[in-house]
Design a protein that fits this description.
The complex is a heterodimer of chains A (254) and B (435). In chain A, 38% of the residues lie in helices and 28% in strands. Chain A has 9 helices and 12 strands. In chain A, strand 9, helix 7 and strand 10 form a beta-alpha-beta unit. Chain A is globular. With 435 residues, chain B is of the alpha/beta class. Chain B has a domain of 253 residues. In chain B, 22% of the residues lie in helices and 37% in strands. In chain B, a hairpin with a 2-residue loop joins strand 1 and strand 2. The chains are: A alpha/beta (254), B alpha/beta (435). The interface between A and B is medium-sized, with 29 and 24 residues.
């Protein structure tokens, strides 16, 4: 589904990603872990098409297409979804109108007719229940004055509405208490199928108690330096990132 | 042309006009002031960024008559606001009130020629007390020019305790289909004690000629009265305009204003609110959305004379292409005006590298127990917001449009007349579709 080869990317001449290789197949859950500043969020942003970063080398193929050539909106149309670490507040734009525009633009991209008001409402109610979100929240301006938990639930709600092939969670657990993490994770899990995949970027292991990964990758200094099964996350939690750093520093020059 | 000589000639004509002489003194004084001051140039501090002298180089028709120019029904239909059949319609043609085209549907509304009111026993004292009060604040030649040529103006009165059940639409029409037109509409409105009115003003230039509308409306708001005042400017790109709205709150009263400027080559608005009684409340909202080479200038002034008044002001602008904007917000708090609450904010989004904005808050506070705040911003459209919308599949064009609509929303929400709000939202959507 997603094949990343030797991806280098940076901002204003500073290289942040220094040769990422990653292969994600349908049905899989991958976790990207790593210390602060290792490039986790940059990877998530580059995949979603954020313009602040420049790709200098390498390739990203998604469902047989060159992802790097596509605009952010086309990537969404192809089935990429980025749940933001810091969802943007937009006063004056109601969440419902935003989601309606989003759903219908993605449908248009996929050659599907727009949903009428009744169909949209039905879909919305169904997905609201999934993340325990109230309709009164959706009538408010997008993310404006939402609590941290409400913002993240809103991200997963949007994800549910768009049914992406690849959901990228950028530090979705940050700033959430354990109950909120559970709600968000349950929402993500309910959307999993053999046809779609999840890439969860996280600093802590605790999200992975609920969204159980098939693979854990450790990102350090712009490269994936270690890949392992879900137990690797527990080991990291227990031993901290230093043991990885030490392993690396012994093995090769970084 | 030498503008002062030109208007001197016209003023001599006006003096020889037969009939009503009640307004001669105020005209004469104003003409004197105009002769000294002339058309304001950019050397005048209040006109630093708005050049109107050049517009006076066009040869304008400016007939000295009380009679409005003829206007066919199609000309009027072209300018009507939505749901006009549920509104009072007051029509100015080339600066002269036209009773023939006006429709008064509310019995609570009195609208008569200003000169008639000046001679009427019931209204004489109101006219002499309030007509021309704006000159105390607008000390420039352009305000004086309007007053010098008061002719064919209108007096509006809402009697004590009455609510005008339909909004009052005022159409300022410049018929430039065959000539260039200088129009100087003049209105004095008196909203009586515990009375209520909603006024909507709009400006239209017909045809391809140049127009210059130099308007003054003075509104007096009595104790316990409520006034909503909306100004909608969507005129053509060969229309120039200086529009002064001067509101005196002489009793504890409530005033709500919104000024929406979407068109016109050069638009200068002066909005003065004078808080002359304890406990007044005034809200000033503004939205401007400029494109091409257009220019819009909003000068606002809130004068807190008495204590315990509240004023809240928010103006927001979007500037595209080569357009330019000016905001100047004055708040005066006089020594007596303790416990004043005065808030002001001006926000701007520039959509192009060639658009420009000059914004200046100007607070002069002479009382010590007050709460005042001001702020202004000039920036670009929120890039992070754009990416957020794009990442949800929304095209960049649509994302921009949604963000700008959202940006305008807190002003649009202040337009409480549903058909007028819908009309303005429609105009903004049309414009956003072209960006």
């Amino acid at each position: 589904m997603l094949t990343i080869q030797d991806l280098h990317a940076g901002v204003e001449g500073k290289e942040i990603l220094k040769g990422i290789n990653l292969d994600i197949k349908p049905g899989e859950v991958h976790a990207i872990m790593g210390p602060n500043g290792s490039g986790k969020s940059t990877l998530a942003s580059v995949l979603a098409g954020r313009q602040d970063f420049t790709v200098t080398r390498g390739s990203v193929e998604f469902m047989g297409k060159n992802l790097l050539e596509l605009s952010p909106e086309a990537r969404a149309g192809e089935g990429i979804f980025l749940a933001f670490q810091y969802p943007v507040e937009i006063p004056g734009l109601s969440t419902i109108n935003f989601v309606k525009a989003s759903v219908n633009e993605v449908r248009k991209y996929r050659g599907e007719p727009p949903l009428d008001a009744v169909e949209f409402l039905k879909l919305m109610k169904e997905k609201m229940a999934l993340v325990n979100i109230d309709q009164s929240l959706l009538r408010r301006s997008l993310n404006e004055g939402f609590s941290g938990g409400e913002k993240k639930r809103n991200e997963v709600f949007q994800m549910a509405m768009l049914k992406p092939r690849l959901a990228i969670l950028d530090e979705t657990d940050s700033g959430l208490d354990i109950d909120a993490i559970r709600i968000v994770a349950n929402g993500v899990n309910a959307l999993r199928s053999k046809d779609n995949a999840v890439l969860a970027v996280t600093h802590y292991q605790r999200l992975l108690d609920y969204i159980v990964p098939d693979f854990v990758h450790v990102l350090y200094n712009g490269r994936i330096v270690k890949t392992g099964p879900k137990e690797l996350a527990l080991e990291l939690e227990e031993r901290g990132y230093d043991f990885i750093k030490n392993e690396i520093n012994v093995g090769e020059e970084v | 042309m030498n503008t002062i000589d030109y208007f001197k000639e016209r003023f001599d004509q006006l003096k020889s006009l037969n009939g009503n002489t009640a307004l001669n003194d105020i005209r004469k004084e104003a003409f004197n002031n105009f002769s000294i001051a002339g058309i304001p140039s950019v050397k005048h501090e209040e006109w630093k960024y708005t050049r109107i002298g050049a517009a006076f180089n066009a040869a304008y028709e400016f007939p000295i008559t009380r009679q409005p120019a003829e206007l066919d029904a199609s000309g009027l239909d072209a300018v009507r606001l939505p749901e006009h059949k549920n509104a009072n319609e007051l029509v100015f043609v080339n600066g002269k009130f036209s009773p023939a085209h006006s429709v008064i549907r509310s019995p609570e509304l009195i609208a008569i020629p200003l000169e008639e009111a000046a001679n009427d026993d019931q209204y004489r004292s109101i006219v002499s007390a309030h007509l021309g009060h704006s000159a105390k604040y607008l000390k420039d030649g352009i305000n004086a020019l309007n007053t010098a040529f008061i002719l064919g103006g209108i007096f509006i009165h809402v009697k004590k305790g009455k609510t005008v059940d339909h909004p009052i639409y005022i159409y300022n029409i410049a018929d430039a289909r065959s000539v260039n037109v200088l129009a100087q509409p003049r209105t004095l409105a008196y909203i009586g004690e515990n009375a209520e009115a909603e006024i909507v003003e709009t400006y239209v230039t017909l045809g391809g000629g140049e127009s210059f509308t130099n308007q003054v409306i003075e509104i007096v708001v009595e104790k316990d009265a409520r006034l909503s005042y909306y100004k909608i400017q969507n005129d053509s790109n060969h229309a120039n305009q200086v529009s002064a709205t001067h509101i005196r709150q002489i009793g504890k009263s409530y005033v709500h204003t919104a000024t929406v400027s979407l068109g016109g080559a050069m638009v200068r608005n002066n909005l003065n609110i004078v808080l002359e009684a304890d406990g007044c409340e005034a809200h000033l909202y503004g939205l401007y959305f400029q494109e091409g080479n257009t220019h819009v200038d909003n000068h606002t002034l809130v004068d807190n004379i008495k204590p315990n008044c509240l004023s809240n002001e928010l103006y927001k602008g979007i500037l595209n292409d080569h357009s330019s904007g000016v905001f100047n917000g004055k708040i005066y708090v006089q020594p007596n005006a303790q416990k004043t609450n005065a808030y002001q904010s001006n926000k701007n989004v520039l959509l192009s590298d060639t658009a420009s904005m000059n914004t200046k808050p100007q607070l002069e506070i002479f009382a010590d127990d007050v709460k005042c705040s001001h702020g202004c911003t000039i920036g670009r459209l929120n890039e992070e917001g754009l990416f957020y919308l794009q990442s949800r599949g929304i095209s960049i064009e649509k994302a921009r449009s949604l963000l700008l609509q959202a940006y305008a929303m807190d002003i649009l929400e202040q337009i409480r007349l549903a058909p007028i709000r819908g009309y303005i939202e429609g105009l903004i959507s049309e414009r956003l579709a072209l960006i």
